[in-house]
Amino acid sequence: MRYQNEENQNYKWRHLGHLLQRNIPNLETLQKVASHTAFVAIDAEPWGYDGKDAAEIAISVIQLADINQHGDPPTTLTSLRERFSVQTHTLKVCGREQGKCQREPTMGKIELVQPDEVESALVNILESVQPIDVTVSASSKALESFELPTFTLVGFDLQFEIRVLSTQYPGLLPYFSSWIDLQEVVKDVRTNLWNCAPSMRDTLIAFGFGDDFLAVTSKTTPHSAGTDTVRMVGLLVKLLSFPLGKGVQIERTGTRSWSGRKAAGRYKKNARLFSRSRPSPRELYPFTARIRRRGGTATKMTAKSILDIFSEFNPTAVGGSVVRDKPLREKVKRSRGRDKQFREKDKQLRGWICLPSLDELETFLKQVNGRRTKDGGVWEAVSCYDPATSVQTAAELSEFREAELAAGFDQKMDLGMQKKEDTEMELDALPDDFNEDGQASSMFAGLQL
Questions:
Q1: Which residue from 5, 92, 159, 264 has the fewest beta carbons nearer than 10 Å?
Q2: Cβ neighbourhood burial of 403 (10 Å; 0-12, 13-18, 19+)
Q3: Angstrom distances, CA of residue 320 to CA of 219, 268, 302, 315, 369
Q4: CA 187 – CA 334 distance, rounded (Å)
Q5: Domain of life, per the record (predicted)?
Q6: With 90 as the cut, is the pLDDT of residue 147 above it?
């Protein structure tokens, strides 16, 4: 089990040991225990340069006594919440803002809480849920290794959520008696095999949510934790009514070659930082935007601070800047003996952001250009993309890099072989009185010209 990697020091085992051993491993077990538990889908959005804290955390609660009595599963998130009375709560942590760019709408209730009040707020939400009546058959083989769970923790790629719960909100863990990662279950039922784990968006499309724009919103639109938990509930309901032994074809809709669900936490580790210069070589970073910050009280803008501000866009590289104090000459009539006049110094903070693809570059420009900062400054974003560039996506850029490396290696090999052949031809053309180094033999050593 990948969550039990002892080398991972981000988990606190004294809190997680009992829970990690009570995993619902497959679709068959999930369907058998569904009527005996309340499912709690959880999602957290990372915040900060290291991506270890949560900017917002949300849960959606659903109780299913009998999934078959509800008819065919819904194919939109709105009808899902209405039919199953899904309770969704989103906690936004004060002081951990995620920027002013337009985000997708959040479903359910939203509450602002202080960082030290998150755990107690989550506990209050769980304690307010009225449990359903359960009756368990003594012959149920699905529960041989399970006690009756009050709540089952549900997620889609739960690594970040488990880390947050274990390190910051351990008081919430005793409320869960079992857990399930839907991404692992989906891996077992898909019929097409590829190395990458299926994404939430691709999975929802395969299970019939493709016509619901809210369910399969654009990959470039920043997600909200509350809506993500409703997506998990929608997938959970589909899986509970999915025939055992049947497979599903999940098609990839075009993802980054270095894709990962928690981009804000992972891309920061992969993004290269260039101090006081534009990322180079430019051929490897074609999707670049130059940003400037005018006005405000800031006096410097480092690559690290730029990455922290715009981490939501998942940059691949960031270039720092310096304060530009270039005085601008006023337009005055030139006359003999007249002193030159200058404006007040125009201070500019400048940097560069490199994005994974052309689409994400355009999204960045649209959302950042003209954005105002808290101290009264204004961001300006200008594209540095060359239209003559042949690549437009991350996959094409990756292929281009590989081709460039291969071409460079072949070119070096050809130059080396050509140089060797030229040297051999020059040596063959030398007279016998010259040695291999092109120097005169000893019989001419004392000859003075």
A1: 5
A2: exposed
A3: 27, 15, 5, 13, 18
A4: 75
A5: Eukaryota
A6: no
Residues 313 and 264 sit within 8 Å (Cβ to Cβ): no
Which residues fall within 8 angstroms of residue 422, CB to CB, at 6 or more apart? Answer: none
CATH number reported for the structural domain that contains residue 181 in this entry: 3.30.420
Answer for the pair 203, 196: CB distance below 8 angstroms, yes or no.
Answer: no
Residue 231, domain member (yes or no): yes
Element (DSSP H or E) covering residue 396:
helix 394-429
Domain co-membership, 17 together with 110:
yes
Q: What is the mean pLDDT of residues 117-143?
A: 67
Domain assignment present for 209: yes
* Rg, C-alpha atoms of the chain: 30
With a cut of 50, say whether residue 83 has pLDDT above it. Answer: yes
CATH number (domain holding residue 366): 3.30.70.330
pLDDT at 437: 52
Q: Give start and end residues of each alpha helix (H) in 295-357.
A: 303-309
Same domain, 209 and 348: no
Give the separation between CA 38 and CA 391, rounded to whole angstroms. Answer: 48
Is the dihedral angle over the CA atoms 334, 339, 345, 350 positive or is it negative?
Answer: positive
**Between residues 346 and 35, which one has the greater pLDDT?**
35
Owning domain of residue 11? 2-240
CA pair distance 210, 107, nearest whole angstrom:
19
Residue 428 exposure: Cα atoms within 13 Å on the Cβ side: 6
Q: Are residues 323 and 191 in the same domain?
A: no
Which residue from 256, 228, 216, 110 is spatially nearest to 160, judged by alpha carbons? 228
Alpha carbon of residue 374 to chain centroid: 25
Q: Cα separation of 153 and 226, whole Å? A: 15
Average pLDDT, the chain: 75
Residue 432 lies in a domain: no
- CB proximity list for 305: less than 8 A, separation 6 or greater: none
Distance of alpha carbon 177 from alpha carbon 148, whole angstroms? 8
233: β partners:
none
Strands 348-354 and 323-324: antiparallel
> In this structure, is residue 161 part of a structural domain?
yes
Do 288 and 216 share a structural domain?
A: no
